Amino acid sequence: MILSGLSSRLAVGLAIGICSLLALSGCSDEPQLLTITGFAQGTTYNISYWTADSVPAETVEAHAEQVLEKIDVELSTYRDDSDIVDFNNSRVTEAQVVPASLVDLVRIAKTVSAQSHGCYDLTIRPLFTLWGFDGTFRVPSASAVEETRRRIGMDRLTIAGPTLLAKAEADIGIDVSSIAQGYSTALLAAALEDLGITNYLVEVGGELLVKGGKPGGEDWRVAIERPLAGERAIQKIVEIEPGGALSVVTSGTYRHYYDEAGKRYSHILDARTGSPVTHDLLSVTVIHPDPTIADAWSTALLCLGTKAALEVSRKLDMAVMLVEADGDEWREHFSPAFENPRWQVQAVPE
């Protein structure tokens, strides 16, 4: 679908065309902000862009659909013919030929896993199933959790080449859902760059990347959700000055969970324990030039909890905002790098 203006659920205010009335020169129109919306990866995507040189929205949409289809064929665990499903279903431990995209994501995940002390893990899918996040919603026994936990781990994946990946045990599988939408955002932005477009906002499932500015040199404005279950409200507005690529990615525990016997179980699982996290950290927002890295870290920091997340973000100089539950209220925590002249953060009254 192609629209004029901007209609992303996270995004960024409408473009306002300003017509300056000048003597003898009449009215000069600014370039218009165009928006393309569609469905991908079980969610939506939005692209807003403008360019002084005319690039038809139909051309941008066609390129976007090609990029998303390629990602789907390579990385989707919801289609039987994808490359990642082939790798997961194979019962061999020798190195297998896989798409370079899968190797790239495993490489990034290995780094994030090591720096998050093993909290982040792409092989964790069996634990999701065990805990009932496939829709069965059941609490497993401690022995079943421990047995399953022993069968996962990023150290069981070996990168053997740019397109070669091996697993230590034949039943190891990979799920890139915690990083793929950020990666998709990056590839969509690259497709825009190939078309000569350098002013844009790209969003896939809430993972967002901006570059340049809006027509007239206006800032991009990005909304961060208030961490409330069952409703949607804005907590912060981030105004990003025109410039190089910058992503804003938020992950939270407040949307996906189930309650059993008076206890709440989050979909964020700690690979080190094999169980849902039990701390009070509700959401993590990461601002980073690379949306793939931001996507992975938003999940990893959410897994770690407030204290460890702040320690890691300080060590790595990451711009991070944390929202932690405090009874019926919440507390906000910011890493030192979150204070940056490139962006301004505005609170939205309740």
From TrEMBL:
The EC number on file is 2.7.1.180
Domain of life where this protein originates: Bacteria
Q: What keywords appear on the UniProt entry?
A: FAD, Flavoprotein, Magnesium, Metal-binding, Transferase
Any note on cofactor binding? Magnesium. Can also use manganese.
**Reactions that this protein is recorded to catalyse:** L-threonyl-[protein] + FAD = FMN-L-threonyl-[protein] + AMP + H(+)
Q: Which InterPro entries match?
A: ApbE, ApbE-like_sf
Q: Does the keyword Transferase apply?
A: yes
Positions of Mg(2+) binding: 178, 295, 299
GO MF term list: metal ion binding; transferase activity
Q: Which cofactor does it need?
A: Mg(2+); Mn(2+)
Keyword Transferase belongs to the record = yes
Give the similarity note.
Belongs to the ApbE family.
Q: Could you identify this protein by its name?
A: FAD:protein FMN transferase
The species this protein belongs to is Hydrocarboniclastica marina
